[in-house]
Amino acid sequence: MPDADSYEWHPAPCPECADPAARLAPGDSDRADILLCSRCLVHGRLPYRDPAEIRACLPFGVRLAMRGEVLHIGVPVTPHGLNAYTRAVVDLATERGFVAVWRPSRRRHEVIVAAPRPDGAWGWIEVGARSGKILRAAVYPHGRGRPGMRAAGSRAVRQLVERLPIPGAAARPDVPAGKAADGFS
Ligand SMILES: [Zn+2]
Q1: Three-state SS sequence of the chain
Q2: 99 φ/ψ angles, rounded to the nearest 5 degrees
Q3: What is the 90 CA–ligand 1 centroid distance (Å)?
Q4: What is the pLDDT of residue 1?
């Protein structure tokens, strides 16, 4: 397990709405094991979240901790030497609400891209450690047990990432229907 400096910390995702603006914070009840989602309220959903439920939806290799009264997720830091295109593709995934978990190695880095939801989209991208370029990827838009798609080369991989359904879109009326449609059906 890497030390604490090897993690980047961000507000933890909500497994219901997966809204990047969501913050999970303790409510005003005595129950420390119940968190309230700030965005599920806006979307007309019941806001109560159980930390165990949140943990169960996240990929292996992340940490959870309360920071400043908000639940945060710690993800392994991005490896050095990625080219700008690779960074942009991974940023695109995280901006859309996916959790990106790097597994660096000497020859090839792997980044897991996962929707923070039960049975959400899941995939991996392989990156050359020396070149910093995307080599190939596989994505499973409807979860790991369902059919997947593969792509080789940075542009084709970017297209796969662009077409992944936005996590939690069905729970979020703010996501346009076109973005919620997955194109993989
Ligand atoms: Zn939520």
Answers
A1: CCCHHHEEEEECCCCCCCCCCCCEEECCCCCCCCEEEHHHHHCCCCCEECHHHHHHCCCCCCEEEEECCEEEEEEECCCCCCCHHHHHHHHHHHHCCCEEEEECCCCEEEEEEECCCCCCCEEEEEEECCCCCEEEEEEECCCCCCCCEEEECHHHHHHHHHHCCCCCHHHCCCCCHHHHCCCCC
A2: -100, 130
A3: 23
A4: 52
Structure tokens at 94: 């995280």
The pTM of this model reads: 0.89
Å from CA of 9 to ligand 1 middle? 19
Residues facing residue 136 across a β-bridge: 126, 152
CA-based nearest residue to 174, from 14, 13, 40: 40
Spacing, Cα 2 to ligand 1 middle (Å): 29
Q: Round to whole Å and give the CA distance between 172 and 139.
A: 23
Indicate the residue type of 62.
V
Tokens, residue 161: 């990432």
- pLDDT (tens digit, 9 = 90+) per residue, 115-150? 999 888 999 999 999 999 999 999 999 888 889 999
Distance from residue 45's CA to the centre of ligand 1 (Å): 8
List the beta bridge partners of residue 111: 102, 125
